[in-house]
Amino acid sequence: xxxxxxxxxxxxxxxxxxxxxxxxxxxxxxxxxxxxxxxxxxxxxxxxxxxxxxxxxxxxxxxxxxxxxxxxxxxxxxxxxxxxxxxxxxxxxxxxxxxxxxxxxxxxxxxxxxxxxxxxxxxxxxxxxxxxxxxxxxxx
Length: 140
Ligand code: CMP
Description:
alpha+beta, globular, four-stranded antiparallel sheet, binds adenosine-3',5'-cyclic-monophosphate, Alpha-Beta Plaits
């Protein structure tokens, strides 16, 4: 199993604010290779399944509503130390706490509408990537 991949989504707020291009530029400038990418809209069931790990959290239904409110860009990215380096690039979950220059500091609105998703472990990167992409849609 490769451990140098991560999974991301550019979320509805960042799509709506016209920042798809800026965010992809920041990702590739940081040395990530795009292995798979698609522009899509999650169904309610897909969003519930994707975020099932948060099902008991008070913000779960708000999160599902938000993630189905508009299109997203989903992608698998490759780079040495991908999961940790990508989380550094995007910054803290809450943009108010994110470091200057991070994607969330630059483009996110709030903790809920936080512009991008980044996997939190190699295992979740594989699960989340598999959720969105068939192997024959990945180009290493
Ligand atoms: P993400 O990295 O995609 O993983 C879980 C998401 O839940 C997170 O980004 C936020 O969009 C959302 N989230 C986390 N904490 C809160 C919160 N306190 N209120 C609303 N949404 C949250």
